[in-house]
Design goal:
alpha/beta; 4-stranded mixed β-sheet; Spore Coat Polysaccharide Biosynthesis Protein SpsA, Chain A; 9 helices; 2 domains; about 290 residues
Length: about 290
């Protein structure tokens, strides 16, 4: 394959975590398309998952399988695939959740969008349960989410959800585009903020092109889920605060909001994990989920 032909192809990056059945469905929705290549990062560190993916794709020239040997988290897993794709000459990328399904014609529209806006981070509209998700807004002080564009002011930050992100290599000033301090959750907010601070833009395609089946990587109310979701809010202070005084205010408000949230969720789910997690999020801990057979 020549460098020119690779430049015209869209490189998909998909992470698998104990979800090979969903990953296969996701990939089936991408095919048949000629101008693509798919990089799959097997993030489970599971022999069973590795065998399933090898059985399905090891002889497929359109798919590259990456086995890092441990659960790297979302950001680092994407960065490793992105670095390999860039080294191989690919210039257009789609980061896609493995529990997402593309609608008919989506790949062509992704390619057209990237060609028209080569220095822009792009996302399509996404069908998520019973609602269509476009712009999402994050309150930089209260760590709250909103799906209403009425929240565009008063400290609400617009960002694109990490379920499906499209971009050209022109957006990459360095190969490790995603902030690896985020293990999972919050990296899409940090990325959108980084892109805009770097003088680039974010854009939403006004068309529903993806169906998202929901979070399959973590069980709600588990220590793993509660820790990493809320740890992301703490890590975001570093990228969102404009000065040391603002950092202090943001940390203080996060302590109040996230601890209250932890108490509420512990009562709701009848487990101490959410409250425990709200106390642990201030420390960089290597909390990993129990292996499952998802």
């Amino acid at each position: 394959m020549t460098e020119h032909s690779k430049n015209n192809k869209l490189a998909f990056i998909i992470l698998n975590y104990f979800g090979s059945t969903h990953t296969i469905k996701c990939i089936d929705s991408i095919f048949p398309n000629k101008d693509i290549h798919i990089f799959i990062v097997e993030n489970s560190n599971s022999q069973a998952e590795k065998e399933k993916l090898n059985h399905s794709y090891s002889t497929n020239s359109v798919i590259s399988l990456i086995f890092p040997g441990s659960n790297l988290g979302f950001s680092k897993g994407v960065n490793i695939a992105l670095e390999q794709a860039v080294d191989e000459g690919y210039e257009k990328f789609a980061v896609l959740n493995n529990d997402a399904i593309l609608m008919k014609g989506a790949v062509k529209k992704f390619q057209e969008a990237i060609n028209l806006r080569s220095e822009t981070l792009i996302s399509p509209l996404i069908q998520w349960d019973n609602k269509v998700v476009g712009d999402v807004f994050y309150h930089k002080y209260l760590s709250l989410l909103s799906y209403s564009n009425r929240q565009e002011k008063l400290y609400w930050i617009r960002y694109l959800t990490g379920c499906c992100l499209l971009f050209d290599s022109k957006l990459i000033k360095k190969q490790r585009l995603f902030d690896e301090s985020f293990f999972m959750y919050g990296e899409d907010i940090a990325l959108s903020n980084y892109v805009m601070k770097s003088g680039h833009k974010t854009a939403l395609l006004d068309e529903k092109l993806v169906i998202h089946e929901g979070s399959l990587s973590a069980k709600k109310a588990s220590l793993f889920y509660e820790y990493h979701v809320n740890r992301g809010h703490i890590l975001l202070v570093r990228s969102l605060a404009n000065n040391p005084s603002e950092k202090i205010i943001m940390y203080f408000l996060r302590f109040l909001v996230l601890t209250t949230k932890g108490i509420y969720r512990s009562i709701k789910y009848r487990t101490a994990y959410p409250l425990l997690a709200s106390l642990l999020i201030w420390f960089p801990l290597n909390i990993r989920p129990k292996k499952n057979s998802q």
